[in-house]
Each structure stands twice: as C-alpha cells, then as structure tokens.
Write a structure and sequence with these properties.
There is one protein chain. This protein is α+β, with helices and mostly antiparallel strands and 400 residues long. It has 9 helices and 12 strands. The chain has 3 domains: 116 residues, PAS domain (Beta-Lactamase, 2-Layer Sandwich); 70 residues, Signal transduction histidine kinase, dimerisation/phosphotransfer (DHp) domain (Helix Hairpins, Orthogonal Bundle), CATH 1.10.287; 156 residues, 2-Layer Sandwich (Heat Shock Protein 90). Strands 2-1-5-4-3 form a 5-stranded antiparallel sheet, sandwiched between helices. Helix 4 runs antiparallel to helix 5. The longest helix has 50 residues. The radius of gyration is 36 Å and the shape is elongated. The relative contact order is 0.07. The C terminus is likely disordered.
C-alpha cells in the first residue's frame, strides 16, 4: 500500500513549526550557550531576572565581586548576590524598568576587606513577560578619571579666583595714583605752550588709555570674583538710552558722526548700573569703529515677548569668521600693533560677562564694509505687566 507524499507547502509549514518548538524549548540557558563565544569576550556580568525577581541565568567572566558563586544564585532572589543597600537600589530600579519600559542605571561601590574599593554600574534592560536583563560593568577606571578631572577643575577654579582677586586689588591700588597723575597733568597743561604742550597732550592720552585698561580689568576681575551682584530696580529704558546718547554726543561730533536714539517709553526691571555699562560699551565700540554715517541706539519688543536693545552702526563691519571671537578678552580686529587709542579689547568681554550675570543674551549681526548691530535681549520677566502685551515694534533697518 502506497502513501501519498505530503505537499511541499505542508513540509515547509511543519519545518517552521518544528523550528519554533525547538527555539521555544531551548530556554535562556541554551540561548547563552549558543552565543557563548560572544559572551566570553564580554567583560560584563549578565544576569537574567524573572518576573518573580529570581535569577534564571547568569554569565560572569569575573565573579570576584559577588557575595557567592553565580551558579549558586540561579533560582534565588536578587539580594543573594549583593550587599543589602545595593540590592534594595537594584530591586527598585528593576521595578521602575518594568513600569516605564525604559533602561535604568544604578552605580555602587564595593569595599573589600583588603585592597582598594571598586565602582560598578548596573544597567537594567526590560524584556518580555516581566523579565529584565541586569548588566553589570566595572567602572572603577572611569570614576577615577572623573575624580581626577574634577580635582583638576577645582584647582583651575581656585587659581582663576586667586588671579581675579589679585587683579581686583592691583587695579584698585593703581587707580588712585593714576588719577593723581592725571590731575597734576591737567594743571601742568595750563602752563605749557608749543611743543611742550603737545608732549603733555600725548602723555594725557597715554594716561587715559592706561586708566581705561585698569577700569576694564577691575570690572572683569570683580565679575569673575563674584563681587558684583545685580540689584534690579524699575526704570524707563527710554530715559537711560537717551542719557547715554547725550553723554556720547561729543565723541560723535568730534568724528562728524550722527548719533540718534529710537526708544519708546518702556519700564523694565533690571540693574540700571550694569545695563548702562553694557550699552555704554556698545555705543563707544560703534563710534570707535565707524568712520562715516553714524550710530543708532534703539529699543523694541522682540517676538518672544521680551525687549531687544540694539546698537546699530555703519562702520567697517565684522567678518563672519570673527563674530564669535570678538567677545573674548583682548580680541580686536585690525589692531595687531595693540594701539591703545583703538581701545583695550576688553569692552565686549565685559558686556558678555554682565549679560551672563544678568540673565540676558547678547548677539551680533554684521556685514563687512556695511556695519553691525549688537543686540541685548531682555527676557519677558524683565518687563512690567503693563508692558508685556505691547505689540512688537517694526525692526529697524537703517539709520535715520
């Protein structure tokens, strides 16, 4: 009696079923055996934990940091392999990994009776049916490197703080004799004529540049030493900007430049002295690097609900490659000879530090040969409630 051969599609289906059954019956132990070569190359400790918080399989290259041999832990609860405090933290992380279906991490330190302690990281990876995979890695070298790095950073910070305190003390001590020298020179100028008067004028310029440098150094050192703290008060930004424009008019007139202000009345909450220092620096910078045209100081609402304070100029402009560098200490464009008549290179650095201290942002947009705009952005919290709903002003696109 002959039997009909099974159709090809039935053979394939039965083959798939047979393979699935074999795969299911293999279990986690067979899986680990199948990838033994790969696991053998891994330094990590791998522990599969069931939904009942019992170890179902363990692979360990180095089991010296466990409380018992790993083979004795299969079927046991989590705490049998770890110290009490560590096991509680790992159990909590396992619970959170199951709940959130996200990988959790726990770092802990073991202090053996002899020798230095070792740091470990346990990462809990959620799996199907409530199982999790606990991966433990020795991170002692990493923690030592982090500790060494932090120690180096602390040393650098202490050295920087000491430098700032020294500069603050030195600058303060030097300012008084310098001011005295300027007073004596002013008296002397009244008695000199001709070449001697010209020489005295040059001495005055040198003393003025030195005083500017000392003032900038004192500002920076006090900011870095934490001696300056913002003291916010309520004031009208239009009044402050107009006062600064009036103050700088003689410098603009000397260079035949136009200096204008466009600032609607807006009350803000900020440190008036610090903000005035920032804008004064920006106006002085604009006048110094502008040969034709002028400088515009403006205030307008920003799209984010804050207030933008802007200083526009028609000066030489700043190449795109250098716009991120101009806020660094002593960085100047077009002054390789370090001519003090062109400034100290610290004004924008002071502006950057005050902006960071006050919670403002500072930015620059520029086109080489056409001019620049420096923008201080005050957050919405710096505006009073009656001013927050104001419609944003139209952007300024040209000098008046």
């Amino acid at each position: 009696m002959t039997t009909n051969p099974k159709p090809a599609h039935r053979k394939k289906a039965e083959g798939r079923i047979s393979r699935k059954k074999t795969h299911r019956s293999a279990g986690p132990g067979a899986k680990i055996a199948r990838y033994g070569a790969l696991l053998g190359a891994m330094p990590d400790l791998l522990l599969e934990i069931s939904s009942r918080n019992e170890y179902t399989s363990i692979h360990a290259q180095d089991a010296g940091f466990l409380t018992r041999p790993p083979e004795q832990a299969v079927g046991k609860k989590i705490e049998v392999l770890f110290e009490e405090g560590t096991s509680v933290r790992i159990a909590a992380a396992v619970k959170e990994a199951r709940r959130s279906r996200t990988i959790q991490s726990v770092e802990y330190k073991l202090e053996p009776p002899h020798g230095p302690g070792r740091w470990f990281e346990g990462r809990i990876v959620p799996m199907k049916r409530g199982k999790v995979l606990l991966i433990i890695r020795d991170i002692t070298d990493r923690r030592c490197a982090e500790a060494n790095l932090q120690a180096a950073l602390d040393d650098a910070k202490r050295a920087n703080d000491e430098k700032s305190r020294f500069l603050a003390a030195a600058s303060h001590d030097l300012r008084q004799p310098l001011q005295s020298a300027q007073l004596f020179l002013d008296v002397l100028r009244q008695r000199l004529t001709g070449e001697e008067a010209l020489l005295a004028e040059r001495v005055g310029l040198s003393l003025g540049a030195t005083a500017e440098l000392l003032n900038d150094l004192l500002d920076i050192s006090r900011l870095e030493a934490g001696e300056i703290r913002p003291c916010p008060t309520r004031f009208d930004i239009a009044v402050l900007l107009n006062d600064l424009v009036v103050e700088a008019q003689p410098v603009a007139a000397e260079k035949s430049l136009r200096l204008r202000c466009f600032a609607p009345s807006r009350f803000i909450l900020a440190d008036r002295v610090l903000l005035k220092n920032m804008i004064r620096n920006l106006i002085g910078n604009g006048l110094r690097y502008t040969d034709r045209g002028g400088v515009l100081v403006a205030a307008r609402s920003s799209s984010g609900g804050g207030l933008a304070l802007e200083v526009w100029d028609t000066g030489r402009g700043i190449p795109a490659s250098e716009q991120a560098l101009i806020f660094e200490d002593f960085y100047q464009i077009g002054n390789p000879e370090r001519d003090r008549a062109k400034g100290t290179g610290l004004g924008l650095s002071v502006v950057r530090r005050i902006a960071a201290l006050s919670g403002f942002s500072i930015s620059v947009s520029s086109v080489a040969g056409r001019g620049s705009v420096f923008r201080i952005l005050l957050p919405p919290g710096a505006l009073f409630e009656e001013d927050k709903g104001t419609t944003p002003s139209e952007p300024v696109t040209a000098l008046p």
